[in-house]
Design goal:
By secondary structure, the chain is an alpha+beta fold. Helix content is 27%, strand content 29%.
Length: 118
């Protein structure tokens, strides 16, 4: 099972979560939200590498999660982490789903994002 599938499956197991595809232009983008409030806590998407400043051609699969600004300021200096793509860069973080960041760390970031958006 690939990392994207593992992460998608994990996010779906959290309590009162709804997964949907709200963007007609990008039907493969998956949003995970709280069923009661509708607030997002994760977004999985595939984007061009150059959108994140990564050299080379092709695309990468990423997840956007909400995080504390202090944590973001530290993590964006680590491999696999970027300021939130198409999100508020002070409150959202983009993480590569290519194995650069360990699955356990991504799960923890999703869990924290879930708690921050309740």
């Amino acid at each position: 099972m690939d990392l994207k599938t593992k992460i998608r499956d994990y996010a779906s197991t959290l309590e009162n979560v709804q997964k949907d595809h709200p963007f007609q232009k990008f039907p493969e983008y998956e949003v995970f939200r709280h069923t009661k409030t509708g607030k997002w806590f994760a977004l999985i998407m595939t984007i061009d590498r150059n959108k994140l400043g990564i050299s080379g051609d092709g695309q990468v699969t990423v997840i956007d999660v909400k995080a504390e600004p202090e944590e973001i300021s530290i993590l964006i200096n680590a491999p696999g982490y970027f300021p939130g793509y198409h999100m508020n860069k002070n409150h959202w973080l983009t993480i590569l789903l290519d194995g650069t960041v360990k699955e356990e760390q991504i799960r923890e970031m999703i869990k924290n994002s879930y708690a921050l958006t309740r």
